[in-house]
Write a structure and sequence with these properties.
Helix 2 packs antiparallel against helix 7. The chain contains 18 helices and 27 strands. The strands form six sheets. Strands 8-9-7-10-11-6-12 form a seven-stranded parallel sheet, sandwiched between helices. With 619 residues, it is an alpha/beta fold. The chain is globular. The protein folds into four domains: 76 residues, no CATH class; 156 residues, 3-Layer(aba) Sandwich (Rossmann fold), CATH 3.40.50.300; 236 residues, no CATH class; 76 residues, Alpha-Beta Plaits.
């Protein structure tokens, strides 16, 4: 009999590890089934010790230990993959079971095969492909042919299902029977059929997938591609989301398979690795800036009667109306009518009392409704309701900012066909596709949308970015990088024949550094500047930033934590409602290569629900 330590592969389990009894043939790396409070879940065995060696601890245990229900798969994880996942768990301060659960779809649990190390693997190296979307697709087609000729399969990972579906349409021509998709949007039958292809088909495959471990069930896997490597959609959902790009890259490293990072504008981390010669380009990196953008300062000479549209924007839309031609996209960063409401007397924002996030004004069933996009708290205003400031009691509350519904109301007077894609009007993928198809098939029209619309658009006759100014009010260090990626990616979607003057960016902050960088002839100096700034302020990719959150922390506890965390730089931030955030800055090389440091930090701030390099620092 053995005492097993297992990591549950399920959500809603308040324990990272649990102990069970198992037979003598159960070992670390086996996939088993256990019962947790009458709930049957899958679990990964992470340690197995002989029961006689644990007699003393078993006698002193304050709880009883049950037997596992059954063994599902013996040697489910190859030892190298097991070591890799253990390292990832330590690096990200995430439970191993959580990472495994995120990498293995529940639809596949009953069909899982052992995770393998590829035979005759070439060896790990990090490769970079920074080119336009069309050039990358062409390169991938060539790579697929080369891999198939060498009897090797390859997997291309995508941040979203939309990206995956677009790529399949281009990459599957002529080889459709050897292309397999893996994503959450598949039906149960589709998933089983595709899973069967992966495990049973001898011919090499092109696997198109959102982040997953299932492609490693192929023993002939020869290349890992992380497409649109810049995308923040690689972060998992929820308050404790983490970066899947790092997970996929380390899985490739652990299985000795080359990993290719592809994007029109690679992340700063990729450029740092290229500078240090830890990553190598497969084609010369595209530093030249071909973005055909017109920056429109929202000054008096460019203003019109509309608070949303500059003179040049209105002229473009009037031309479309007169010619009844053209499909234009108007990008608004927020859904709703107005993203911000502020007191004109004292300047206090109208925020949610529960989570302290700004309320966003919507119009629902004809009624003005404030919604918190964090906790979904609602405040409805009828004709007899007057909104007042919670700070000074003033009634002069002013709505500010640009959002989709407000833009729609403004544009209706132009008489142009309008279509909207955002989280409020199109909450499902089916509705997004329906509205997008209607816009495409209309003789002409304007699509108003958030990033949800931007992600589905392939081509447009013109794109107007109504404003990105609200991004600068967010205390996030990734803002400049996000704006550069967003705008340059939009530039690729403007039909080439119409590029001259058809990508417009309206702004009141023309003097901001990132706005000037968008018109720079080369991005080489832009990358260098951003990397220097990140290093100067102890930020990723040069440093890791560990964020912890504490409720009603006492001053004595703060002092003790600061002493225990020496010599590292620590910062405190009062998030409101009794919540205090702690940030710890540690050199990335030290964090990555020193397990003692990781264990020490985890022990000190374990109760602060630590996150490593979170997507948002202050949310």
């Amino acid at each position: 009999m053995r005492v097993l330590t297992v990591a549950p592969l399920a959500t809603g389990i308040p324990y990272e590890e649990l102990s069970y009894f198992g037979k003598d043939d159960v070992n670390a790396g086996d996939l088993v089934e256990v019962t947790i409070k009458r709930r049957i879940v899958k679990a990964l065995v992470i340690d197995a010790q002989k029961a006689e060696d644990e007699k003393q601890s078993l006698r002193n245990a304050s709880f009883g230990i049950k037997k596992i229900t059954k063994v599902i798969k013996k040697e489910f994880l190859h030892p190298k993959m097991w070591n890799t996942l253990s390292y990832i768990s330590s690096y990200l301060l995430q439970p191993l079971g959580t990472i495994m659960y995120d990498l293995l779809s529940e639809k596949a649990f009953d069909m899982l095969s052992p995770i393998k190390i590829a035979e005759d693997s070439k060896g790990f190296e990090l490769l970079l492909l920074e080119q336009t979307a069309d050039t990358r697709i062409t390169r991938y087609k060539t790579t697929v042919r080369e891999s198939f000729s060498k009897k090797k399969s390859l997997v291309i990972f995508f941040p979203t299902i939309t990206d995956l579906e677009y790529a399949k349409a281009e990459l599957s021509r002529g080889i459709d029977e050897y292309v397999v998709m893996l994503h959450s949007g598949l039906t149960e039958k589709q998933y089983k059929d595709n899973f069967k292809k992966i495990t049973d088909l001898d011919h090499p495959l092109l696997i198109l997938s959102t982040p997953s471990m299932l492609p490693w069930m192929r023993s002939d896997l020869g290349l890992i591609v992380i497409e649109r490597e810049h995308s923040h959609y690689y972060f998992t959902h929820g308050d404790y989301g983490y970066d899947m790009r790092l997970v996929l890259e380390h899985l490739a490293r652990g299985s000795n398979i080359p990993c290719l990072l592809g994007s029109h504008m690679l992340s700063l981390r990729a450029h740092m690795l290229h500078t240090s010669k830890d990553a190598h380009e497969v084609m010369p990196l595209q530093f030249r800036n071909d973005t055909p953008i017109s920056i429109i300062p929202m000054t008096d000479e460019n203003k019109t009667g509309s608070p949303y549209l500059a003179r040049q924007t209105l002229a473009l839309l009037h031309t479309a109306k007169l010619s009844t031609k053209g499909h234009y996209f108007l990008y608004a960063h927020r859904k709703g009518m107005y993203p911000t409401t502020v007191c004109s007397d004292c300047g206090t924002l109208f925020t949610c009392p529960h989570c302290n996030r700004p309320y966003v004004l919507h119009k629902i069933a004809g009624m003005r409704t404030y919604i918190c996009h964090g906790c979904e708290n609602i405040v409805q205003l009828n004709d007899d309701t007057t909104l007042s400031c919670r700070n000074c009691g003033g009634w002069r509350m002013q709505t500010l900012g640009i959002a989709t519904t407000g833009v729609e109301e403004e544009l209706r007077r132009l008489g142009i066909p309008l279509f909207i894609i955002d989280g409020e009007h199109t909450p499902t993928r089916a509705k997004v596709k329906k509205v997008y198809k209607e816009w495409q098939e209309a003789p002409y029209g304007v699509l108003i949308g958030t990033e949800m619309a931007h992600n589905i658009i392939e081509k447009a006759d013109g794109i107007i970015i109504l404003s990105l100014d609200s991004l600068f009010s967010l205390p996030e260090y990734r803002t400049d990088e996000k704006i550069l990626n967003l705008v340059t990616e939009m530039a690729e979607k403007v039909i080439s024949d119409h590029r001259d003057g058809k990508l417009l960016l309206q702004t009141r902050l023309k003097g901001m550094t990132v706005i000037k960088q968008l018109t720079a002839p080369s991005f080489r100096e832009v990358y260098s500047t951003l990397l220097r700034e990140r290093e100067q302020f102890l930020l990723p990719p040069h440093y890791v930033v560990i964020k912890a959150s504490f409720d009603n922390i006492a001053d004595q506890m703060r002092v003790r934590l600061e002493q225990e965390l020496e010599p590292y730089v620590v910062e405190w931030f009062e998030a409101g409602k009794g919540v205090t955030l702690l940030f710890i800055h540690i050199k990335e090389t030290e964090w990555a290569h020193n397990p003692q440091v990781r264990e020490r930090i985890k022990r000190i701030i374990y109760h602060g629900r630590p996150l490593v390099n979170p997507l948002h620092f202050f949310i």
